[in-house]
UniProtKB/TrEMBL annotation:
GO terms for molecular function: carbohydrate derivative binding; glucose-6-phosphate isomerase activity; monosaccharide binding. PANTHER family: GLUCOSE-6-PHOSPHATE ISOMERASE. CDD domains: SIS_PGI_1, SIS_PGI_2. It comes from Trapa natans (Water chestnut). Pfam families: PGI (PF00342). Its main location: cytoplasm. GO terms for cellular component: cytosol. This is Glucose-6-phosphate isomerase. Belongs to the GPI family.
Length: 584
């Protein structure tokens, strides 16, 4: 099954666009506000006692099971949320996204990351042009290039094979690829293809990150991939210049052509930097940075490490969810249900945070990636039409793999604040361990916790139960668990490249659903700009003070004092230094 979109509706008037009303003014929103009072009278202990309700709160698609029966919600709540989706024109908004309409209105761009994993014969248009052939043109080039590097027909300046890759990039040009790389590292198939190879990520402009990345690597066998949508991001460009210096220092200027390649939408700047445009891999402005892992941003470093065939499976997993998201009815649509439940928790029950708790060490970089996808997308103060929101959008995402998190912040989740939790479990471990004479195998031990924690949160433990256990009176309040703490569970069949793609797309679309309901633009990120421009002012001051001895001017008392102290304490830093690279 493939979806064929032949319509580009960017020029067609869509009735709901005429309305600038905020969703909070809709009848369904107001109805849900009233309904909160009913839900406050319930407890998950009672809700969980109704098997019919629980059965209705399970959805399966492509071997993924979502169980949301531990949400503080009844079937009535869920129906009201579907009504809210209707009032927010959710289905139309999803269609507009897939049709290539310029729904990122403040940047006047389509939002078409789904095209990055579409089948070769799919038709997905932006500005009436089918973008899928361009996508596959780059994928073919990536396949060819990564195979040449991997089979040793593309070698470094001294004729040695390039076994190690450093991918330089930050934010969306880093977090998604890092998540997928970390998840694939222990997958038996991917691991097999990565034998003898290393992939590292240089993101932070902190020189310590440079030191960590180059330590133990030989420039002769290293390929540097500069990943930047804009090719202007200060951190990435300084890191790229730093590693260019590292290569030139060891191998001379002509080595850059063999040891540095780029991924960007800005090919003129790639060339200006000194990278051969033939060694640059394009993507397009209709791919948001945080949604770019399925473009060359992720596909190049991951194909170099694992081979294109593995990465193609990852793309297929994401595509399966795209089709589901596009075509499944709302009541069976996993990203839609997840998005609506987040809206319920944030905007109605008033829980501002969400914990992402994968019971798989391979998913240790999933929460950091979703932090960007979710918080950069939905942390907005105005509606898509520019009106101040009378409610808070977005949520605070954080997480750690279980069981590590259990020995860290779960105390707060069990007895302190109410934080809706996403438990993500995997049926078949990537790396099973069985020990003779143990009660259960190691993965079963992990999964015992995955199955137990949601019930501990939902049911809690009452004072009466503790009294029956003859607990000393003075400890009863300390050992009481109120319960009624919502969670949902996602059970994946395994964690291969395909499943990783599925998981990624589920969360990407969930975030879009939330933004569509809140009526915000989930695809711009103006909030990151102010800090960047203030850093430019500081950078100029540091340069002027170091080179010309100029005094610190134009800052408030606090910043001026701090900057002056910093400059004074580092007065031994040379104003016109020779290149110095970390040596550890
Ligand atoms: O600072 C935020 C941001 O613009 C992100 O949205 C983006 O993923 C990141 O910077 C990196 O941008 P680029 O890929 O253009 O270097």
């Amino acid at each position: 099954m493939s979806f064929l979109f032949i319509a580009d509706v960017s020029s067609i008037g869509v009735s709901y666009m005429a309305s600038v009303a905020l969703i909070s003014e809709s009848g369904s929103w107001k109805d849900l506000k009233v309904h909160v009072e009913d839900i406050k009278k319930t407890h998950l202990r009672e809700l969980m006692a109704d098997p019919g309700r629980c059965q209705s709160m399970m959805v399966e698609f492509d071997d993924i099971l979502l169980d949301y029966s531990r949400q503080c919600a009844t079937l009535e709540t869920v129906n009201k949320l579907f009504k809210l989706a209707e009032d927010a024109c959710l289905k139309e908004k999803i269609n507009r996204m897939f049709s290539g309409e310029r729904i990122n209105s403040t940047e006047n761009r389509s939002v078409l990351h789904v095209a990055l994993r579409a089948q070769r014969d799919a038709v997905i248009c932006s500005d009436r042009k089918n973008v899928v052939p361009d996508v596959w043109g780059v994928l073919d080039k990536l396949k060819e290039f990564s195979e040449r590097v991997r089979n040793g027909s593309w070698v470094g300046a001294t004729g040695k094979e390039l076994k190690d890759v450093i991918a330089i990039g930050i934010g969306g040009s880093f977090l998604g690829p890092l998540f997928v790389h970390t998840a694939l590292q222990t997958d038996p198939e991917a691991n097999q293809y990565a034998k003898g190879r290393q992939l590292r990520f240089l993101a932070n402009v902190d020189p310590i990150d440079v030191a960590r990345n180059i330590t133990g690597l030989n420039p002769e066998t290293t390929l540097v991939v500069v990943v930047s949508k804009t090719f202007t991001t200060a951190e990435t460009m300084l890191n790229a210049r730093t590693l260019r210096a590292w290569i030139i220092d060891a191998l001379g200027p002509s080595a850059v052509a063999k040891h540095m390649v780029a991924v960007s939408t800005n090919l003129p700047l790639v060339e200006k930097f000194g990278i051969d445009p033939n060694n640059a891999f394009a993507f397009w402005d209709w791919v948001g940075g945080r949604y770019s892992v399925c473009s060359a941003v992720g596909v190049l470093p991951l194909s170099l490490q694992y081979g294109f065939a593995v990465v193609e499976k990852f793309l297929k997993g994401a595509q399966s969810i795209d089709q589901h998201f596009f075509s499944a009815p709302l009541e069976k649509n996993i990203p839609v249900i997840l998005g609506l439940l987040s809206i319920w928790n944030v905007s109605f029950l008033g829980y501002p945070a969400r914990a992402i708790l994968p019971y798989s060490q391979a998913l240790e970089k999933f929460a950091p990636h979703i932090q960007q996808v979710s918080m950069e997308s939905n942390g907005k103060g105005v509606s898509i039409d520019g009106f101040p929101l009378p409610f808070e959008s977005g949520e605070i995402d954080f997480g750690e793999p279980g069981t590590n998190g259990q020995h860290s912040f779960y105390q707060l989740i069990h007895q302190g604040r109410v934080i809706p939790c996403d438990f993500i479990g995997v049926i078949k471990s990537q790396q099973p361990v069985y020990l003779k004479d143990e009660i259960v195998n190691n993965h079963d031990e992990l999964m015992s916790n995955f199955f137990a924690q949601p019930d501990a949160l939902a049911y809690g433990k009452t004072a009466e139960q503790l009294q029956k256990e003859n607990l000393p009176q003075h400890l009863i309040s300390h050992k009481t668990f109120t319960g009624n703490r919502p969670s949902l569970s996602i059970l994946l069949p395994s964690l291969n490249a395909y499943n990783i793609g599925q998981l990624l797309a589920i969360y990407e679309h969930r975030v879009a659903v939330q933004g569509f309901i809140w009526g915000i633009n989930s695809f711009d990120q103006w909030g990151v700009e102010l800090g960047k421009s203030l850093a430019t002012q500081v950078r100029k001051q540091l340069h002027a003070s170091r080179v010309k001895g100029e005094p610190v001017e134009g800052f408030n008392f606090s910043t001026k004092t701090m900057l002056s102290k910093y400059l004074k304490a580092t007065s031994d830093v040379p104003a016109d230094p020779h290149t110095l690279l970390p040596k550890i």
